[in-house]
């Protein structure tokens, strides 16, 4: 087994990774959806959003395995971060770098590995979006293209996370409150200096130049407005039935 080399910019790369403050965080739907789409698109039982730390690879999102992480020395992704180009290994048993890797010889018995680097604007590759199969094969051009798009989307989510963290920290550094925003553990309102509890959007609007728009997410529609959801679904069903009837008449 060939252990992955350490990138020349490793210290800068690890610093970039740490700025996202994502290692060890709980699963999130946005990232989970990306791995689900990757798995379905490529027809593979396993898909991972893998972040390469100093001595491990940790999975922010995953499909098809239970492990939370593996050691870096075994990591295919630690090889993939050396290039901005995807690493495609169609049959790991025939690749001298991986044929005796514990992840090939044992579970999950990797044969196909296709890793697409997560690269930020400063060319720091912090991990990969990868798909894995237990049968050797490659990817079609369409699958390849979609995986590239998904990897860019994952980086966009990470960058949004970093900007949000920096915004909050910037506000805290200016506010005379000991760098702390007091929030309710239940309703998530924030307490201002007068002791009033405000919704977070109103709280930030009074102290920053941020503007907010409002809507209702799908989960809240289902929980708080089931009657409205039922009407919408009924209307959609009626439209579909009407469209089907019109098509039959035309035929």
Describe the structure.
With about 250 residues, this protein is of the alpha+beta class. About 40% of the residues lie in helices and about 15% in strands. The protein contains eight helices and eight strands, in the order ααβββαβαββαββααα. The chain has a six-stranded antiparallel sheet with strand order 3-2-1-6-5-4. A two-stranded antiparallel sheet has the order 7-8. α2 (about 30-40) runs antiparallel to α5 (about 140-175). The longest helix is centred in the middle third of the chain and has 34 residues, at about 140-175. The chain is flat, with a radius of gyration of 23 Å. It starts with 9 loop residues before the first helix and ends with a helix.
How much is the radius of gyration in Å? Answer: 23 Å
Unreliable residue runs: none
CATH topology descriptor of the largest domain: Beta-Lactamase
By helix and strand content, what is the structural category?
Answer: alpha+beta
Distance between the termini: 64 Å
Report the order of strands and helices: HHEEEHEHEEHEEHHH
Roughly how much helix do the residues carry, as a percent range? 40-55%
Our count of domains comes out at 3
The gross shape turns out to be flat
The total count of helices amounts to 8
Write down how many β-strands occur, each being a DSSP E stretch of 2 or more residues: 8
CATH architecture term of the largest domain: 2-Layer Sandwich
Major sheet description:
6 strands, antiparallel
User: What is the CATH superfamily of the largest domain?
Assistant: GAF domain
Could you give the order of strands across the largest sheet?
Answer: 3-2-1-6-5-4
Mean pLDDT: 87
CATH class of the largest domain: Alpha Beta
| Share of β-strand residues | 15-25%
């Amino acid at each position: 087994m060939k252990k992955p080399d350490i990138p020349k910019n490793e210290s800068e790369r690890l610093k970039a990774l740490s700025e996202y403050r994502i290692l060890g965080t709980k699963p999130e739907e946005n990232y989970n959806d990306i791995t689900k789409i990757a798995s379905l698109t490529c027809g593979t039982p396993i898909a991972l959003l893998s972040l390469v730390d100093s001595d491990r690879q940790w999975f922010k999102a995953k499909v098809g395995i239970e492990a939370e992480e593996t050691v870096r020395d075994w990591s295919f992704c630690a090889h993939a971060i050396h290039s901005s180009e995807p690493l495609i290994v169609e049959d790991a048993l025939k690749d001298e770098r991986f044929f005796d890797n514990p992840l090939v010889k044992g579970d999950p018995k990797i044969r196909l590995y296709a890793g697409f680097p997560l690269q930020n604007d400063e060319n720091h590759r912090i991990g990969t979006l990868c798909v894995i199969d237990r049968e050797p094969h490659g990817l079609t051009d369409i699958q390849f293209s979609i995986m590239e798009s998904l990897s860019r989307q994952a980086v966009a989510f990470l960058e949004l996370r970093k900007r949000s963290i920096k915004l909050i920290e910037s506000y805290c550094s200016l506010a005379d409150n000991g760098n702390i925003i007091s929030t309710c553990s239940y309703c998530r309102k924030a307490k201002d200096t007068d002791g009033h509890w405000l919704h977070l959007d109103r709280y930030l609007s009074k102290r920053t130049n941020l503007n907010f728009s409002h809507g209702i997410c799908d989960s809240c529609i289902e929980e708080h407005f089931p009657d409205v959801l039922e009407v919408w679904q009924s209307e959609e069903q009626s439209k579909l039935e009407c469209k089907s009837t019109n098509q039959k008449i035309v035929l």
